[in-house]
Amino acid sequence: MSASTDLRELIKMAPDHPGVYVWRGAVGDVLYVGKALSLRKRLSNYLPAVMGQEGSRVGAKEREMTSRAASLEWIVTSNEVEALLLEHNLIKQHRPPFNIRLRDDKSYPYIMITMEDEWPRVMFTRQPHRKGNLYFGPYASAAKVRETLDVLGRVFPVRTCRGKDPGRPSGSPCLQFHIGRCPAPCIGNADKAEYMAVVDQIVDFLSGRETKVVARLRKSMQEAAKRQDFEAAAVFRDRLEALTHVLERQQIESGTLGSADIAGLAVDDWGANVQVFITRDGRLADRRSFTLVNAEGADEEEIFERFVAEYYSTSPTVPTELIVPPKVREVEALAAFLEGLRGTRVEVRQAERGDKRRLQELADQNAALALVHERLKADRSRERRYGALTALEQALHLDAPPVRIEGFDISNLMGEDIVASMVVFEGGAAKKSDYRKFSIKTTGGQNDVGAMREVLLRRFTRAKEGLAGGEYDPSFEAIPDVLMVDGGKPQLGAAAAALQELGLEEAVSLVALAKREEELFVTWSSGPLPISQDDPGLLLLRQVRDEAHRFAVGYHRTRRMAKTTLSILDQLPGIGERRKKAIINHFGSPERFLDATREELEAVPGLPGKVAREVYAYVHKTG
Fold it and tell me: Fewest 10 Å CB contacts: which of 295, 374, 568, 570?
């Protein structure tokens, strides 16, 4: 029985109940997660795609997904709200490639307050969220985050030093203390209650409660003046002026706006964009723009629902009111979902009139303009990539523009910790899911040529094993059209020998790009190719080479840092091999051990409390 027949029979067995369905690939990987009020009715829409039939209900995305699908499963829920929550959790866990998602959502800049620290810090971050900390954002640009942090530093004195504990190894306070921007908890100069009160003011400010913060500063200034502490009153006055100056930049203020998020949506054949206008205390506090991918063929309801689930599940604050676009009518499930996140009632509705209606229409217009801009930018980028690939086709005498390009680089320090990187570009753009890194095992010393030969033998041996039914790895399965090594003729010769040994010399076009003169070497020419330095194909290969170098150096630094950190474990008081192993097993990595609190160290199985305290004191004494 064929896979399509099996899937057809599964779809016919689907229950007529609300729930979530999951499409899986050949190795059990999750391809798509969806929800439905009726699983049977929703899944029946996939039948034409499963059976390979063309029809009005069959889109390109559905055909591609079902062609890769090997199995289907579903989970029945009590109602649509439960289905929405379960769908979101599964998407968050598996990150399916065919689901609508915010593009590069983890790369947006945030402001993080490290509430898990005894003396919290206010920081810029792009890292995934850690439980226990507060996050504000995402912001439209890193410049805006840094501008906000600068204002916070002038108005609210908190520490900026790195690490869970305040202070420097020298024990002396830093410049921030001397210019009045830090109370110096590192030398015992700060009162904990006062410090946390300042942190609470920062949270209020970033949450949009600026009027509350202004009132508190004004009250502190007046109280200091009454007790004739004019120096303190002047400090509060300067902070109040700085904060007021920032707030005066807001251009829209209305007593009818209140505190709400006002969303706009634009959808076309290319994708979707959502704009969120954030109003707090009657003032337009911020505007955020989000592009969603994999939205082709989906309706506005589905797109907006997916946005709300993904955005607000990671947002530090959930509004009491969300104004949605007119095309979004099914608001009950969204309201219930947001109420579950917030813990109190959330109103989700369309705006019929007034300032909120005007702002919602403005949000729709901004979303449409942003979508046009993104599409034009993507078109220009696609044209540049196609031009570069066409130039490579001509320069390397290929039969067609290369679809897949792989770049390799070696990184080491004086012959130690030798590693290699493999980066992949498809269609002229980086495909980071296919990146791979290698630890060089058999080649020692300062021997980049030998290391290059070893890594290519390992990479293409894995390809042949996978094609013969061995361990599956999608990146190793694919054979590149162009293989680029970082270096000159020696590296080219090593790569050619490896390919010849595996019988792949005719299947791959091999090139080497030397750094110093940016010369391009090929196997069929004794000298460098006569190619212009501004040739689009050469510029693309430089991009591949630089990305391979960045990836290799990053992996090398990680290895070297881990090695250095492991040597620290050997110096800890009262720690032998058994206890060192217990520490690593408990924390998972040396880096996580260094970030551990004293209480976390005392919880390590097999580590006495006295030894844990001595270890903590030793680590933090040495920095």
Answer: 570
pLDDT tens digit sequence for 451-481: 889 999 998 888 877 666 666 677 888 889 9
* 3-state SS assignment for residue 390: helix
Contact 562, 568 (CB under 8 A): no
pLDDT at 418 over 90: no
Indicate the pairing of strand 260-267 with strand 321-323.
Answer: parallel
Encode 306-362 in three state secondary structure. HHHHHHHHHCCCCCCEEECCCCCCCCHHHHHHHHHHHCCCCEEECCCCHHHHHHHHH
Q: Are 302 and 100 in contact (CB under 8 A)?
A: yes
Q: Cα 503 vs. chain centroid, distance in angstroms?
A: 39
Report d(CA 81, CA 3) in Å as an integer: 32
83: closest CA among 337, 343, 345, 348?
337
Is it the case that residue 105 has pLDDT exceeding 60?
no
Residues 6+ apart with CB under 8 A from 435: 421, 422, 423, 424, 475, 551
Neighbours of 439 (CB within 10 A): 12
DSSP assigned state of 186: G
Quote the tokens at residue 413: 């320090």
Helix (H, G, I), strand (E, B) or coil at 407: strand
* Amino acid found at 252: I
Cα dihedral 560, 413, 555, 143 sign: positive
- Tokens, residue 269: 């054949």
User: pTM of the prediction?
Assistant: 0.62
What are the structural domains, with CATH classification, of the chain? 3-95 (3.40.1440.10), 260-373 (3.30.420), 404-559 (3.30.420.340), 571-622 (1.10.150.20)
pLDDT higher than threshold 90 for residue 408 = yes
Count each helix (H run) and each strand (E run) in the chain, helices first.
Answer: 21, 19
Question: Residue for token digits 């030093």?
Answer: 161
Query: CA 151 to CA 455: how far, in whole Å?
Result: 50
pLDDT band at 528 (very low <50, low <70, confident <90, very high): confident
Q: Does 202 have pLDDT greater than 90?
A: no
Is the pLDDT assigned to residue 236 strictly greater than 60?
yes
pLDDT at res. 566: 56
CA atoms within 13 A of residue 482's CA, in its CB half-sphere: 35
> Could you give the CA distance from residue 52 to residue 5 in angstroms, rounded to a whole number?
11
CA distance 55 to 609: 69
Of 100, 74, 99, 85, which is closest to residue 22 (Cα–Cα)?
74
C-alpha span between 22 and 108 (Å, rounded): 28
Helix (H) or strand (E) holding 271: none
pLDDT averaged over every residue in the chain: 82
| Exposure letters 168-181 (e unless 16+ CB within 10 A, then b) | eeeeebbebbeeeb
Phi, psi for residue 534 in degrees, rounded to 5: -105, 20
Q: State pLDDT tens for residues 597-615.
A: 877 888 888 888 888 888 8
Q: Which of 23, 19, 94 is nearest to 63 (CA)?
A: 23
Q: Which of 94-103, 153-162, 165-174, 256-265 has the lowest mean pLDDT?
A: 165-174
